Amino acid sequence: MNPRATISLAAARRIALAAQGFGVPRPAISGPRDLARTVDRLSLHQIDSVNVVARAHYLPAFSRLGAYDQALLDRAAWGPKRERRLFEYWAHEASLLPITLHPLLRWRMAAADRGQSGWKSMRRFAVERRAEAETVLARIRGEGPLAASDFDNGKGRGGWWEWGDGKVALEFLFWAGHVTTRTRRGNFERVYDLPERVIPAAILDLPAPSEADAQRQLVERSARALGIATAGDLRDYFRLSPEAGRAAIASLLEEGTLVPVAVAGWHQPAYLHKDARHPRRIEGQALLAPFDPLVWERSRAERLFGFRYRIEIYTPAEKRVHGYYVLPFLMDERLVARVDLKADRQNSQLIVRNTSFEPDAPAETGERLATELRLMAGWLGLETVSPG
User: Fewest CB within 10 A of the end CB: N or C in the chain?
Assistant: First the structure.
């Protein structure tokens, strides 16, 4: 095998940023096609219900497109069947994915149906408690869309991880592909329904590839979205096992879709997608959600940008370093600051509770960050940006 070409860290950053959709002008007005291209480029938007600023799945498109209409994403994800362009499933955690990827995840649904994936409490509903799951499914089939609050007398057992039996059964059925998300209620509660009543028949009728081929296609999508990546980066994108990742990477190398390279300063081998762009510079700025694919793999963010990032939502307030809901700030080719934000909707303010600049942040960082904060406030329908 030929020795791996060595790519500088700066070049690797530019490749990664271009693959993620940065470095191109934002549209003057973003429409459905812009959103569709963005979601297709990233392959998924991770879902998170925390609404301190905006729910996380709305933010990656804002970071790349600017002030787009959030209703576009709502219709694509939870609108009428004929308008569905996205579906919910477990990819990189709970995610919104292009609906065309549904066949590529059926192997994961089949594994859940056999009781071979998912949390232990869910696996019981695949085997010894299967009759109970079938009863829940029959109720949805007969009554129509239902949420967890329609079961268990409307109650769980208290905490986020203390679901009632009805919720666990529903989540098993969801993982196994027997139900999908019909819509979300006002409190963001998932409403479940049969796939054939939600997902267009043209998608459900597509043949499912073999497990190995589906995983190879998922890794190819990961490589396209990342541009340049380690094996761990590639398999983490869709949360594949090391074995599945190795097999997929080997196949993609053999066919020439992946090119083996070395990145200066990286200890692990790297892989370059054959169609990755190699821009000479990246210009632009963006506030990033904590679950943006540019930064969700924290070790990758450190390797690419020298930026150590941890979300501190679950850290006691007195132990937080940067704040509760902290968004990294991308400026050109670097992550140069982080800002703890809160949308005060009652008083129409975007509150900046804390700002931390990286030691080598350029002098214009504050001014450009302020511009992006004003853009975000307007997008959220807030009148002012205020210190907290």
Answer: N
